[in-house]
């Protein structure tokens, strides 16, 4: 299959599936706010149900960690060759209807770092032990993603402003850049939360604030345009684009949770009481995401019941994961 940046939607989905068991284990099985490790499994020996559940979740988590990193390495190799040997990247960026696809690697790769410091550290507790020593390299990687993300967004915005676009042809896949802002913000806010170095945490906090503000503004503008155009069209998009409706959900969650973590840093560092606004931000983002999920399922119920399994694969289907 010819390389396309949209391949990274698959690695992103694998990262999400790796993170879900980790979060479930941490909150519902081990009931811990601290880092958890495989060695903690022995604590569940007296509870056969929880022990069996933990084993199943650990197996799923381990499998999807391997899948995520294996395909990430493979697709990174293909990405570098694609950038060096073809002019396709320039062509995609110059196409206002398709250039959001170029952000796919910038969605997946920050999540790779989140998986590294989360699920991978469950199996390799030395990562947790040496966490502070890794904050410097993590910040450098974050800075690289941050610069590339803003540069790409400025470029596609310039193309959008100078080239005529038939907004009626746009679909919810246009939100991939917003999803990239959410993923980079989550990575940055994680550094802010973990780093003991004031220089690293404060720098990451400032940079994350910028990505959050830009991401939220772009998200609001794009969703408004997409919803209004969909209402005007009075017909549903093609079957290969229908799952893209679900792409509203992940940026809402990622931006909201990153904002929540940033407020926690402000509370801890500047002794500003952010408990109320943090609660409102988290509830609003997840309530909105759940509402859109229900709306999308109802809207696409015929597709989900009759066409999803029978239709050919399309990259938009990763949005459902």
Q: Which structural class is indicated by helix and strand composition?
A: mainly alpha
Low-confidence stretches: none
Mean pLDDT: 90
Biggest sheet, open or closed, and with what strands and sense?
none
Helix content: over 70%
Strand content: under 5%
How is the topology of this model organized?
Layout: H1 8-29, H2 48-85, H3 88-93, H4 104-117, H5 119-123, H6 126-129, H7 131-162, H8 176-194, H9 198-233, H10 249-270, H11 275-299, H12 301-307
Helix pairs in contact: 1-2, 1-4, 2-4, 4-7, 4-8, 7-8, 7-9, 8-9, 8-10, 9-10, 10-11
Write structural notes for this entry.
- The chain is mainly α and 321 residues long.
- The protein is 72% helix and 0% strand.
- Helix 4 packs antiparallel against helix 7, helix 4 packs parallel to helix 8 and helix 9 runs antiparallel to helix 10.
Short note summarizing the structure:
The protein has 321 residues and is mainly alpha-helical. Helix content is 72%, strand content 0%.
Q: What are the main properties of this structure?
A:
321 residues, mainly alpha, 72% helix, 0% strand
């Amino acid at each position: 299959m010819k390389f396309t940046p949209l391949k990274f939607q698959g690695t992103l989905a694998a990262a999400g599936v790796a993170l879900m068991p980790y979060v479930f284990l941490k909150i519902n099985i081990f009931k811990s706010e601290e880092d958890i490790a495989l060695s903690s499994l022995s604590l569940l020996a007296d509870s056969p149900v929880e022990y069996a559940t933990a084993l199943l979740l650990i197996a799923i988590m381990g499998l999807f960690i391997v899948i995520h990193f294996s395909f990430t390495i493979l697709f990174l190799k293909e990405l570098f060759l694609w950038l060096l040997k073809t002019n396709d990247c320039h062509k995609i960026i110059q196409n206002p209807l398709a250039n959001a696809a170029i952000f796919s690697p910038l969605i997946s790769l920050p999540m790779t770092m989140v998986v590294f410091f989360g699920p991978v550290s469950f199996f390799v507790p030395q990562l947790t032990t040496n966490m502070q020593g890794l904050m410097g390299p993590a910040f450098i990687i974050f800075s690289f993603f941050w610069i590339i993300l803003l540069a790409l967004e400025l470029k596609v915005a310039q193309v959008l402003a100078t080239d005529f676009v038939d907004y009626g042809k746009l679909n919810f896949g246009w939100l991939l850049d917003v999803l990239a802002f959410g993923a980079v913000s989550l990575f940055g806010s994680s550094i802010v939360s973990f780093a003991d170095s004031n220089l690293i945490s404060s720098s990451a906090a400032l940079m994350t604030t910028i990505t959050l503000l830009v991401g939220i503004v772009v998200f609001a503008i794009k969703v408004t345009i997409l919803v209004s155009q969909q209402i005007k069209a009075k017909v549903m998009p093609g079957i290969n684009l229908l799952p893209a409706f679900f792409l509203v959900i992940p940026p809402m969650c990622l931006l909201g949770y990153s904002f929540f973590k940033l407020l926690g840093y402000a509370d801890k560092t500047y002794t500003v009481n952010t408990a109320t606004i943090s609660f409102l931000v988290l509830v609003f983002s997840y309530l909105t995401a759940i509402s859109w999920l229900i709306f999308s399922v109802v809207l696409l119920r015929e597709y989900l019941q009759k066409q999803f399994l029978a239709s050919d694969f399309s990259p938009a289907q990763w949005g459902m994961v």
